[in-house]
Amino acid sequence: MPRGSSFLALALGLFVSLGRGPAAFAQTTGAAPPAAAPPPAAPVLVPPRPLAALEAAYPTEPGLTGEADVMLDVTVAADGSVKEARIVSGDAPFTEAASRAAPSWRFEPATRNGKPIPARIRVLIHFTPPEPAAEEETPPAAENGPAPKDGAPGKKPTATPKPAGPAPIEVLALGERRAVGTSSLGRAEVRVLPGAFGDPFRAIESLPGVTPIFSGLPFFYIRGAPPGNVGYFLDNVRVPYLYHLALGPSVVNPAIVDRVDLYPGGYPAQFGRYAGGIVAGETTKPKGELHGEANIRVFDAGAMVETPIGDRATVMAGGRFSYTAAALSLLAPGTTLNYWDYQARATFDVTPTDRLTLFAFGAHDYLGAEQDGVEQGLFDVQFHRIDLRYDKDVSPRTRLRQAVSFGYDRTAIGGQEGIFARDFLIAARSQILHRRSESVLIRAGVDANFDYYDLVAGTDDDDGRDLQTVLDQFFPPRQDIAVGFYADAILDAGRGVEFTPGARVDLWGSGGVTAISADVRLAMKVPIVPRLKLVSAMGLAHQPPGFVLPVPGLTIGKLAGGLQRSVQTSTGLDVKLPFGFEATGTFFLNGFFNMADALDSVGRAANGGGGGPGGPGGGPGGPGGPGAPPMDEEDDDGPNVISDRSLGTAVGLEIYIRRKLTERLGGYISYTLSRSSRSIGFSSGPAQFDRTHVLNGAISWDAGKGWRLGSRVVFYTGLPIAAADAAIWGKSRTDPFFRIDARIEKRWNFKTRGWVSLVVEMLNATLSTEQTGVSCGPTECVAQEIGPVTVPSIGVEGGL
């Protein structure tokens, strides 16, 4: 096999189900069974596992290029050989290549009560074109199962005739397909995306429907919903924020992130309690071999290592540490900036169908400045999570997950006294997946969150105790409870037609006030002609009041004014183009009700923004910036942006054309044309961060001999300006913004195993500045600008 010509072979959900019931194999006798005979024990079924990497040659037809997927139904005989391989989906000539390779594959056969038996599995295979400098990939193990055993068989065994026996067991796919309308980013592609620094979470801003607040900052609107209405999850665990301070990387080491999914609207019923989109990351599956990655850059260093312990357990540890404080002290004396994060995971296979996983992760960011010889913390945020989960194959067709999470969030509010906003979190979730048939997958579950919020003084002296008394009087500790029930079903109607109806009910409690919400979801996918599909999604979502920008440990929480609501709809076309290109065009229309952001043009004075949003320090929508305590909805002193609920709409068109960045020549164009508005009473206007046009484009080229070059272009139009200031300024919006990111990599692959890369990367290589608003006097206006916000990086990466 030439390097790069292998493909991923992924057995989707090796969960065994009997093709016939036990009675089909029982021999009848004339005697009746004893009345007191106990029922027979349920058979212990273990699915087959590949003994080595499943490989096939990339087709050699002239002019053939690009990646491709082929689905096979493979019957594995009791001796581990492939008895039959039937094509389920795929295009020629890749289907022929997969069919030719399948007979050479060898498996550890399936067993029933320890006895080898024939089995049928469904395998999704991914072809990658041969590239001399391409990184070799090892096909992952079967989903939710132990990793394949190392070592290929010495020689191909000779097939021998088998006596007639029972029909083979059938391995049904419990693995979930990508939800309709979802955009996914894998680690391999993100790693070569310029300006993303290898972080899947940071690459979210390049997807259609995503509108940045300002260039490079980790806050964005998704189809008109502000950042505070966007939910962040890692392995279904709620995360308060995704990025480190000052354009830093994501709070999770990218080496453990398998993919990131963006659900812009109408998402699956398991996600709830957010009126905007959902960003969900999934960590990599445990591997049964020692492996790891490490990198060192001009501003931080990180590493991850995972190793098996025996045949049933794995342990992983990773983290990242920033040493920007030393460099920053040279450029800005008296200023301190640092961050760190950590991740640790342990898995143990109790039985072949039972797995325990303990996953812990957290992050810390700090920005301080010296004032009068004393360092004051301007930004001090940290969070920690511990997730214990138990996965079990209850039956051949049913999978169960039980999990409990513990969390701690803390944000320091500025000032010499020091006030900390804290959240102590306990969450539990239970989910069941049941494959009713090959065309029906049912998902249902329950999740519950308990949050304890409080404000505490940072000192324990007399002044601190006096401050704590005031805090307890005006902002007493608060307990929030949310319990949700959900269910949906993926229905395969045949010929590629798929429907996913779902529903969710949530019960809320906060500060002695309760509420209930009911959400409905519906998604569908309908082929029109070969390679062209109609996709549509809709949903109703609810969320308690919150700040425009998420602040760990600090929420509004008051339910007296009711829940925020959104109605999300989208319809589009998905087309497969020649040469490995894919394209989607999506029209969306969202309605927002009872929103707590109040971001209309007439409400900006209340937000302290003047003629525009007021720059990055404008705060999360309440007076006093990010550290402001929750406002009482009953308080009528001055403008109250919390009680002044708003209505809103967002309408737009998204265009996405891509060829995988991992191709020899890959790239994408992402364009969003949209209009987001807010209204309060009889006043209305564009939303504060409405941008009519947002364009992203990237290209990545494998130049050979380990060199890969890439560049990304970002362009978006300006922010709206209040009418009174626009009359003086002469324009209704700030100036557009444009930037170019660049990336150069030289990679060395070792013959046996491992790789090392030298990476030079720069965000905003054009050193562009950005207007954030205008400040107007009686006769003239002055543009408010930030930047140039730029991040140059030189680093070394490597892995095994």
SSE map:
Layout (H helix, E strand, L loop, with lengths): L7 E4 L3 E3 L27 E2 L2 E2 L17 E9 L5 E8 L4 H8 L5 E2 L1 E3 L2 E3 L1 E9 L41 E4 L10 E4 H5 L18 E3 L7 E3 L8 E4 L2 E2 L18 E7 L14 E6 L7 E6 L3 E10 L3 E10 L1 H8 L3 E17 L2 E18 L2 E22 L2 E16 L5 E19 L2 E18 L4 H13 L3 E17 L2 E14 L2 E17 L2 E12 L20 E13 L5 E14 L50 E14 L5 E16 L2 E4 L6 E12 L2 E10 L6 H7 L7 E13 L5 E9 L6 E7 L4 E6 L4 E9 L1
Parallel strand pairs: 10-11, 15-18
Antiparallel strand pairs: 1-10, 2-11, 3-8, 4-7, 5-6, 5-10, 8-9, 12-17, 13-14, 15-16, 17-18, 19-20, 19-43, 20-21, 21-22, 22-23, 23-24, 24-25, 25-26, 26-27, 27-28, 28-29, 29-30, 30-31, 31-32, 32-33, 33-34, 34-35, 35-36, 35-37, 37-38, 38-39, 39-40, 40-43, 41-42
Explain how this protein is built:
With 800 residues, this protein is mainly beta. The chain is built from five helices and 43 strands. It has a 22-stranded antiparallel barrel. Strands 1, 2, 5, 6, 10 and 11 form a six-stranded mixed β-sheet that branches. Strand 5 (68-76) and strand 6 form a beta hairpin. The longest helix is centred in the middle third of the chain and has 13 residues, at 462-474. The radius of gyration is 28 Å and the shape is globular. Mean pLDDT is 79; it is low at 1-40, 132-175 and 599-641.
